[in-house]
Amino acid sequence: MAYILKTLNSWFWWENIWMPINCTWADFVDHDGLVFPKPHQLYATIPYAFVLLIIRFFSERYVAIPLAKALGIKNVRRVKPQPNPVLESYFRECSRHPSQSEIQGLAKKCNCTVHLVEKWFRRRRNLEIPTVLRKFQEAFWRFSFYLTSSIVGFLFLYDKPWFYDIWQTWVGYPFQTLLPSQYWYYMAEIGFYWSLLFTLGIDNKRKDFMAHVVHHLAAIGLMSGSWCGNYVRLGTLVIFVHDTADFWLEAAKMFNYARWEKTCNMLFIIFSIAFFITRIILFPFWILRATLYQPTYYSTTPVIAYFLFNGMLLILQGLHLYWGYLIFKILKRFVFLKGETSLCLPAEEKEGSGRALHPHWLGF
């Protein structure tokens, strides 16, 4: 087993996968003032994730809750059903929405009325639905992180030549020194996605649960891979392009939960504009151009990482086009109905309905 692991490790870190020809890992030892990203530094993202979870706990409790109350969102306390092992077992293992005949059978088995069984299942289903306040807290945390990341990312990048001239991302590659700002930018972003993975089980349950798992793992893998290959300059640009649109969506969600319809509509329109500029224009014609086309000027023999990373970035662009299509449909409906409909729908749960009422874009 040890030999197999050692062989796999040597294959994974084979130089031809990660770096140009005639370069070895020995060339990436810090020297002459040059500092390079090191794979073992990625272990630090795990404790950073727990630091972010602590920050999230205090921000949700001491900032998000008072803000939600100021916006008129109340903390709805749901009535718990009476403990009943038979009904609880049926709820978990069989069905959350039993038929009328099943309810009658359960009523006989529990020696109670059909009305009480129906009431028990209704209350038990409601416990599974996150409250509007809880949704607001999660949206507030993501909004806070994306907004902070966008501001800090701009401060880190605005004076860098590659922020204005994309060709500069490849000048001197792969011997580009790692800046402290790049280190912290990467650590915070990867740590954030680790923290989202750690809380998927306790956050609001979504129908696209597995899609979120895949998305977070892909984001971590893409950022970690770019770190190991020292594609840090391009990596920071990719992060910045994505975060600058996301906080507008989270802000729209927050005001949707507060039922501030006009504010929510305005924020969603701003988000749509930011999304199309950053992900439909800048990402393919700026970022992808730098990753697909420009490396051929610096190396005639692309490494394996060139195809791996560009493959993932192209898949990401495909998702951008799909999400852009959905956003366009929402905006088109809103415009052609001349404002008679809202981009936002009430986010409050209807007691006994078994599901939350919200627009499709809330899942983005």
Automatic annotation (TrEMBL):
Enumerate the InterPro entries for this protein: HD (IPR001356), Homeodomain-like_sf (IPR009057), Lag1/Lac1-like (IPR016439), TLC-dom (IPR006634)
Determine the domain of life of the protein's source.
Eukaryota
Q: Which residues bind DNA?
A: 89-126
PROSITE patterns, per database record:
HOMEOBOX_2, TLC
Location in the cell reads: Endoplasmic reticulum membrane; Nucleus
Q: Which GO terms describe its cellular component?
A: endoplasmic reticulum membrane; nucleus
Coiled-coil regions in this chain? none
GO molecular function annotation: DNA binding; sphingosine N-acyltransferase activity
Q: How does it sit in the membrane?
A: Multi-pass membrane protein
Q: Which reaction does it catalyse?
A: sphinganine + octadecanoyl-CoA = N-(octadecanoyl)-sphinganine + CoA + H(+)
* SUPFAM superfamilies, per database record: Homeodomain-like
Which pathway does UniProt place it in? Lipid metabolism; sphingolipid metabolism; Sphingolipid metabolism
BP GO annotations: ceramide biosynthetic process
Among the Pfam families in the record, one is: TRAM_LAG1_CLN8
Keywords noted in UniProt: DNA-binding, Endoplasmic reticulum, Homeobox, Lipid biosynthesis, Lipid metabolism, Membrane, Nucleus, Transferase, Transmembrane, Transmembrane helix
Q: Which PANTHER family match?
A: CERAMIDE SYNTHASE 3, LONGEVITY ASSURANCE FACTOR 1 LAG1
Q: What is this protein called?
A: Ceramide synthase 3
Species source reads: Corvus moneduloides
Gene responsible for this protein = CERS3
